[in-house]
Amino acid sequence: IAVDTSGNAYVTGRTSSTDFPTMYAFQVALGGGFYDAFVTKLNAAGSALVYSTYLGGSGDDRGFGIAVDGAGNAYLTGRAGPTDFPTLNPLPGTSCNGDAFVTKLNAAGSALVYSTCLGGGGENPNGAGIAVDAVGNAYVTGATSSADFPTASFQAVLGGGMDAFVAKISDVSLPPAAPTGLTATQASPSQVDLAWSHDGSDETGFELERDTDQSGIFDVVGTVGADVLAFQDTSVQVNRSYTYQVKALGAAGDSAFSPSATVTVRAGKLLVLPVRLTFSGVAVGNSDTKTVTLQNVGQGTLTGSVASALSGSFTLLAGGGTFSLAPGATLSVTVQFSPTTRGTARSGLTVTSDDPARPATRVQVTGIVR
Fold first, then answer.
1. Of 247, 265, 283, which residue sits at a domain end?
2. Is 175 part of any domain?
3. Fewer CB atoms near the end CB (10 Å): N or C, the chain?
4. Residues 198 and 93 both lie in one domain
5. What is the pLDDT of residue 177?
6. Do both 70 and 56 map to the same domain?
7. Residue 307 and residue 260 share a domain
C-alpha cells in the first residue's frame, strides 16, 4: 500500500476473482491463469474507488510493492508469469517468464506509462519493494538466482543461491527536469557567459533562448549537448540588455524553462597614458625606467594585451602579455632604458583591447644620449 499527499490510498496484490471490482480500468478482466496482480486507488475517506484495474496475462502474476509520485502515477513491482504480461517500452533484452516486473500506471489508472520485466536465466521470484524519487526514477528490490541478471554497478556476479537485487530504472517517458541557477555574466563587450545547473541525467541536450529587447519574445540563440552546463553568446552588442532562459531537451519532450537571467552589456574604455615615453639625460652605462598606465574608465571589463617591439637598449620590465581590467582598474607597464652608445634609439609598444573605440594604441618609446 502507498498513500499520496492528498490521503488517497494505492493498493496492489493478487486476485483470482473474475468479478474483482474495477473502475476506469486499464485491464477490465482477469488475464487468465490462477492469479492476476491488481491496482486499486481509494479516495481519502476510503468510501469510493478512484480507479481499480487488473494487471496480468495468462500466467500467475502477483503485485508485491507499490509507490506513488507527486503527480499520482503508481509504480508497481511483483512477479510476472508467461510472456504475455502487459509491457510497454520494456528494457532491451527482457522477457517475462517468472521474472520481476516494474510497471508505471498513469494517474487515471487507465493506461501504462511503461511496463517491463526484469530478470535473467535463473529464478527471479519477485520484485518485493519499490520506491520513486522526485524525478520519476524507480528503485526496485527483490531476489534472484540468475547468473545473468542485468547489472550496471557494485556487484556484477551472483554470490550464490539466491541474492537480493537493487535496480534503479529511469523513466524515459518523462521530460527531463528544468534547469536551475541560470547566470549570465559579461565576459567582454562581445561575449556573455551563461552557466546553469541540472538535476538529472536524462537530457539529450540544452536549448538557450534570448530576449534582445525586453519584449518578452525569446529566440533560440544556441544549443549544447547533454551534460554541458555552459554556453558563450558571442553575438551581443554594447549598451544593450539581454534576458536568457534555458530548457533541457529529452527523448520524451522538453523540460520547462529555467528562471531567466538578465545582463546589460557595457563597453570598457581604455585610457593609455602617456602614449610617448622619452628618456633623456641617461649616460652610457646607466639605466632609467618609465611607466605607462593603462586604466579602464568604462563600465565593462576590458581584456587585451601589451605587445613589445622593444629592442636594443630598451627592456620591458613589467606589464607585458595579456590583461583583464575591471571597471576602474589600472595596469602599470614599465620600460627600462640602458644605453650602451651615444645617439637616439626608437622603439615601441602596442596595446590592444576589446574597447570598440580604441582597439589598438601605439606607445612610442625614444631614448636620447648626447
1. 265
2. no
3. C
4. no
5. 84
6. yes
7. no
CB–CB of 107/72 below 8 Å?
A: yes
Q: Residue 258: give the domain boundaries.
A: 180-265
- Return the minimum-mean-pLDDT range out of 12-16, 135-139, 201-205, 361-365: 201-205
Domain stop point among 206, 239, 265? 265
End-to-end CA separation in angstroms for the chain: 101
- What is the rounded average pLDDT for all residues in the chain? 90
The predicted-structure confidence for 280-324, as pLDDT tens digits, reads as follows: 989 999 999 999 999 998 888 889 999 998 888 999 999 999 999
Instruction: Evaluate whether 208 touches 247 at the Cβ level (below 8 Å).
Output: no
Domain CATH number, residue 200:
2.60.40.10
pLDDT at 299: 81
**283 and 227 together in one domain:** no
**Same domain as 186, residue 80:** no
Q: Is the pLDDT of residue 233 over 90?
A: yes
33: cell is: 491463469
111 within some domain: yes
Sign of CA dihedral 43, 47, 51, 52: positive
The count of domains in the chain is 3
Which residues on neighbouring strands pair with residue 247, listed in sequence order? 207
pLDDT for position 172? 60
Mean predicted confidence (pLDDT) in 23-52: 94
43 lies in the same domain as 130: yes
Query: Could you tell me the pTM of the whole model?
Result: 0.49
